[in-house]
Specification:
Number of domains of chain A: 1
Structural class of chain A: alpha+beta
Strand content of chain A: 25-35%
CATH superfamily of chain A: Aminohydrolase, N-terminal nucleophile (Ntn) domain
Radius of gyration of chain A: 17 Å
Strand order of the largest sheet of chain A: 3-2-4-1-10-9-11
Oligomer: homodimer
Largest interface: A-B, 27 and 27 residues
Chain lengths: ~250, ~250
């Protein structure tokens, strides 16, 4: 496994330190993901993206963040194991990647490899272009180019429409390799569980709190569910609002 | 004065801690700019943007950064005094703002106020949209929309062409109020000295090191030059490569 993904969607500002403290030691200490980490916390339509190309387990920057007690209704995080023969440590190669579209910050994190993505039809004159050298950022730009060409974003945009628009490019890219990913604009969190992604939903019955946490592998002994291979899920304010099986 | 600007362009990776340590106490300690700070360090075509809505003088985050010893050939920084009656503290309102265009990260920081910018022709269907509520981010999006509509970015793009394209919108926005700004893509740093901006160039004679530092007010007792009101300057690798008087 190349990397580990994490995301949270909730209906109230929520502290994810409990989960991050279990995820981040996998970055070079208990796990092999020693080539950087990144976390995006949404504040409305904007995101604060913290990232570092140093191992998560050793990062003073990350330790400082853990003490900051940040809360958000939407968080996306990633720890990275680079493919040393191809793409090295650099901020530009560190997830989550971020682009503004339609007055929202969109962030993306990927787990897997997409060999051959560079030989697909070039995106040279498209709106979103990579800054770094990863297959993951190329995939993100392809998804954003498809979204921006096909959706006039507005209040009437539904999770069904988002899934419909991204599904063909997700299917195309999945054929290249492994394409587990998380895409968020702070309002919607869309995930593709290609081979390995788990969800933990806490939106039980009469509770006013709704929270959904996603991770490559379960982080606690709570009742995490393995998402079906090839399925796409959309979360909003801590609840599932859209789903499509492979 | 609302805010303080800082930028550096050099032909070799350079540590700007000397200047930042003189700038940042003005954020709530020796100066009134107590509503956040931000610094963008370029790594190639990507930028690492660190920002915080807390006062610079009190920020543990900034203290951690100061110890990190980051070097870059291009840096843009800003400390902010919000207009309390209008726009509050929030990451989305903190400079530098950042957008990807043409495979480059572009960052922007502004000193001044642009009252009435919201009553200009709406940019609703344009490519770059604000995430927050500041006049500054609106101005940045307007400049980026003009650039992306008028330039096919490539190796033949010159500083003359960039100045020619941005000049009309810079003149239009300057009529609204005060519009000192810094715009960089890591390669080119373009500044508009509307009312108050100083430059310090160290590209003397036979030296292989070229560095230019820009700031609202001189930060040291070195030979800072006040840039002429209304002038536009473009720096690349620490040297002036383009200039246009008002």
């Amino acid at each position: 496994m190349m990397c580990e993904l994490f995301a949270m969607s909730a209906n109230q500002p929520t502290d994810v330190e409990k989960y991050l403290s279990l995820l981040m030691p996998r970055g070079g200490k208990t796990g092999p993901h020693a080539d950087g980490w990144g976390i995006a916390y949404y504040e409305g339509r904007a995101s604060r993206v913290f990232k570092d190309a140093a191992p998560a387990a050793e990062s003073r920057y990350l330790a400082m963040l853990a003490r900051a007690g940040l809360k958000s209704t939407s968080v996306v995080a990633h720890i990275r194991k680079a493919n040393p023969s191809v793409i090295g440590r650099a901020t530009a190669n560190t997830h989550p990647f971020e682009r503004e579209w339609n007055g929202y910050s969109w962030v993306f994190a990927h787990n897997g490899k997409l060999p051959g993505i560079e030989s697909l039809k070039p995106q040279r004159y498209s709106r979103f272009q990579p800054l770094g050298g990863t297959d993951s950022e190329q995939a993100f730009c392809r998804i954003m180019n498809v979204l921006s060409r096909n959706i006039m974003w507005g209040e009437s945009t539904t999770s069904e429409r988002i899934i419909e628009v991204v599904r063909p490019v997700v299917k195309q890219l999945s054929k290249l390799g492994e394409f587990n990913f998380i895409l968020s604009n702070g309002e919607y969190t869309l995930v593709h569980a290609h081979t390995n992604l788990h969800a933990l939903e806490h939106s039980a019955g009469t509770s006013h709190n709704a929270i959904c946490v996603l991770a490559t592998a379960p982080l606690t002994d709570e009742a995490w569910q393995a998402l079906a291979p090839g399925s796409i899920h959309v979360y909003k304010a801590g609840r599932t609002v859209g789903m499509l099986d492979a």
